[in-house]
Amino acid sequence: MVHPYKERNMSALADKLGFQFYPEDDYGMEIQLQDFRLFSQGRSKSVARIMRKQDGLMDLDVAIFDYSYHIWGSSGKDDRVHQTVFFLQSAKLGLPELWLQPETIVHKLGELVGFTDIDFVRFPKFSGKYRLTGGDEEYIRHHFNDEVLNYFTMNKGWSMEGIGFYLLVYRKGTLISSAQIEQFFKRGQEVYKMMTDEEA
Question: Cα–Cα distance between 106 and 122 in angstroms, integer?
């Protein structure tokens, strides 16, 4: 079996994009992000291969890293889930707690027994593809303007989480290949700009 991280030179990519590279989570990023739902899943969690760029003048902390954890699979075996995550911290965010994820049949069944999410009548395709939940529906609706709704309608399969000054973007269970890391970084920048009207 080929190791999922084989052929991914994150150190070289970090140099190319102007990031610092850290093979291990020496600065406690997992602890910093423990309130996100992504980090509440599974066990034996691991944050590694961190590309990080901090800009004090712009008040930005941006990172791309690999996150993995163990779960019990449908076959009863212990499975390891891997994904690449975009993280950004900025005082310009000020987000309510929110969670955007692709809608599954389980979510649709949940709606039948009273579990609801935030839908947008004017954007039925978005509401059909995504489940959006959070603590302040009015504030979330304000942030999810036409630009944001159109973006995720056209770019399906992504997850986003926001808490205060923190933003995460990832595709659940997907490691981003070396060839796509730069595009993944640009995608994170696009989402940040839409949520704040700022450049990263």
Answer: 24
Whether this model's pTM surpasses 0.85:
yes
By the 8 A CB rule, do 80 and 51 touch?
A: no
Please tell me the distance from the alpha carbon of residue 181 to that of residue 199, in angstroms, as a whole number.
Answer: 18
Using 50, 70 and 90 to split pLDDT, how confident is the model at 184? very high
Contact 103, 131 (CB under 8 A): yes
Supply 42's token pair: 């599974």
Q: How far apart are CA 196 and CA 147, in angstroms?
A: 12
Q: Whole-angstrom distance between the N-terminal and C-terminal Cα of the chain?
A: 38
Q: How far is CA 34 from CA 37, 99, 191, in A?
A: 8, 14, 21
Asked if residue 161 lies in contact with residue 133, where contact means CB atoms within 8 angstroms, the answer is no
- Residue count (the chain): 200
Beta-ladder partners of 45: none
Q: What is the pLDDT of residue 1?
A: 41
Give the Cα separation of 61 and 132 in Å (integer).
25
